[in-house]
Amino acid sequence: MELLTCTLPQLKKIASGKVRELFDLGNELLLVATDRISAFDCVLPNTIPGKGEVLTRLSAFWFRTLKDRGNHLIETDIARYPCVLQPYKRILEGRSMIVQKTKPLPIECVVRGYLAGSGWQEYEQFGTLGGMRIPKGLRQAEELPELFFTPSTKATEGHDQPMSWKECQELLGESLAQEVKERSFSLYAQGRKIAAERGIIIADTKFEFGLCGEKLLLIDECMTPDSSRFWPIDHYRVGTNPPSFDKQYLRDYLATCGWDKKPPAPVLPPTVIAKTAQKYQEALVITSSS
């Protein structure tokens, strides 16, 4: 069953993001991952079969694997869901989770371990990464000499915008900004190690956090193909753009199809939909295998 949008009668929808729908359960929230896909901050008109389930299963894997770090996951087993959700079992099965309510922080926390994507483009043009000067002579896809924290705004409409470390501190306060940065580095380092044991390089990733009282929790998703750049170790070569198990394949297609990266996004051909779905499934199988 493919899911483009999700409405659950008698349940209040409190947010609808690029991919996820959020419903109020009183003391908790229901998070539903649709099969929508976005690129260049635009939601495409097509669904990607199985995508919502991949995102949910991968996030649940990481939330449970990294549970000592603190996250919002409560339950993914629909048999344990409240009675009010049981009539929607067919819709929710495999693509939903019950999570703690938090106050989301207004930033996206990007951690970069390798020079790729927009980071590589910035470095080529300015010799910087996240506005910070880094060593000369680095090549595309090269491992960075240290981890870089390059936060961005979390736009409700349009494009997320990069922000400096100083701007991040001013927005969150110095203490919370430092905690978010350290938590992001710790999560990435542990996740990268686990992925490497499975033959995957996590080149960079994005985290989101929320406050539950004074406790900082990881929220939304965790190290999925939507939020991360996955490279197969056996195909990794410095100086090239490695093949990836994420939506880079889709971005590459969109960059060459004549689209100006402004809404409305183009309809995807069946071959691109199938190949993108395959990339997501590969990420799930390889990353979450024991």
Concise overview:
By secondary structure, the chain is α+β, with helices and mostly antiparallel strands. The chain has helices at about 50-65, 90, 115-125, 165-170, 175-195, 250-255, 270-285; strands at about 15, 20-25, 30-35, 35-40, 40-45, 75, 95-100, 105, 105-115, 130, 130-135, 145-150, 150-155, 200-210, 215-220, 230. It folds into two domains: about 15-100, 2-Layer Sandwich (Phosphorylase Kinase, domain 1), CATH 3.30.200.20; about 105-255, D-amino Acid Aminotransferase, Chain A, domain 1, CATH 3.30.470.20.
Radius of gyration: 19 Å
Residue share in β-strands: 25-35%
> What is the name of the CATH class of the largest domain?
Alpha Beta
CATH topology of the largest domain: D-amino Acid Aminotransferase, Chain A, domain 1
Class per helix and strand makeup: alpha+beta
Broad shape:
globular
Distinct helical segment count: 7
**Can you summarize the main beta sheet?**
7 strands, antiparallel
Q: What separation lies between the terminal Cα atoms?
A: 27 Å
Query: How many strands?
Result: 16
* Rounded average pLDDT: 94
Q: Tell me what the CATH architecture of the largest domain is.
A: 2-Layer Sandwich
Helix proportion range = 25-40%
What order do the SSEs take from the amino end to the carboxyl end, as H and E? Answer: EEEEEHEHEEEHEEEEHHEEEHH
CATH superfamily of the largest domain, by name, is ATP-grasp fold, B domain
Number of domains: 2
Uncertain runs: none
